[in-house]
What does this fold into?
Amino acid sequence: MPDLTIVVPACNEGAGLREFHARLAKVLDTLDGVTSAVLYVDDGSRDDTFQVMCELRAADPRVATLRLARNFGKELALTAGLDHVTHGAAVVIDADLQDPPELIATFVAHWREGYDVVYGTRASRAGESRFKKFTAAAFYRVMERLSATPIPRDTGDFRLLSRRALDALAQVRERQRFMKGLFTWVGYRQLSIVYHRDARHAGTSKWSYWRLWNFALDGITSFSGAPLKLATYIGLLASLAAFLFGLWVLGKALLLGDPVRGYPSLMVVVLFLGGVQLMALGMIGEYLGRLYLEAKQRPLYLVDEYRAPGAE
Ligand code: UDP
Ligand code: MG
It folds into this structure.
């Protein structure tokens, strides 16, 4: 049983996988005192990714392969991979060499010091457009504002997770999985390592802007109830304004008469009903938010340590 498993989700990465494995294997060879394994997860690739994985498995006894039935997306490929790590710690790394495998040695050193989650924070990203960098930065900053779980900035999935962090993560079975939020959510001792993100070695990014936008929406909705709350407050404000305006229309009609016949009563009814409806929607929103939290079935808390009274 390995002490450390490197989980590598890959979708159409056939072109760069051999090079990736060569660099990774070199790093794993230098880790003394730690037995390691590599789990390649084929997330429904349409190219020769799986054949390359099998070839690597035949050549290196450390390699295991996991092939998903179709493309489920990176978050689920990661989940499937981590679920298969039943012993020891795990490292999550992209297959495109954007995350340098050499950093794993540093992660391992800190893991041995007792950290549970050691993650790479990007100081820079090479080979990505200004627009992508800008939208990524904006996303991390919005997330920081909205989420109750502080999700670290400029941090991808590249990280090491200790056994207990993995066990905690295994208890989180929500369907809409925003992995980097969940990695942080487990807590324990976390450490950030700053690194320089390289350009993709081969192949192309699987994340179109549309996919990234949906990813951002997933992140915000699964870690924040702010959008629902916003509806509540807009509803309350609008209904208050409608109520005041209704009073004003009514008052004016009572004092100055009713030059346009039927207008004041019509306005009062419309505004009153509109206000009541918005408020009711807001209330439903609040309950929906709670129901949503409940439906996710996250563990209520995770314990770092408990010390019974007495000796030591
Ligand atoms: N990936 C995956 N399934 C997908 C999309 C991506 O397993 O549906 C893998 C991909 O092969 C790579 C990692 O997730 O190892 C990161 O993807 P990519 O490099 O395309 O994302 P970017 O670095 O552009 O954010
Ligand atoms: Mg990449």
Q: What stands out?
A: Residues 4-210+299-307 form a domain with the Spore Coat Polysaccharide Biosynthesis Protein SpsA; Chain A fold (CATH 3.90.550.10). The beta strands are 4-10, 36-42, 63-67, 89-92, 117-125, 155-161, 190-197. Residues 9-11, 13, 43, 71, 73-74, 77, 94-96, 98, 205-207 surround uridine-5'-diphosphate (ligand 1) (CB under 6 Å).
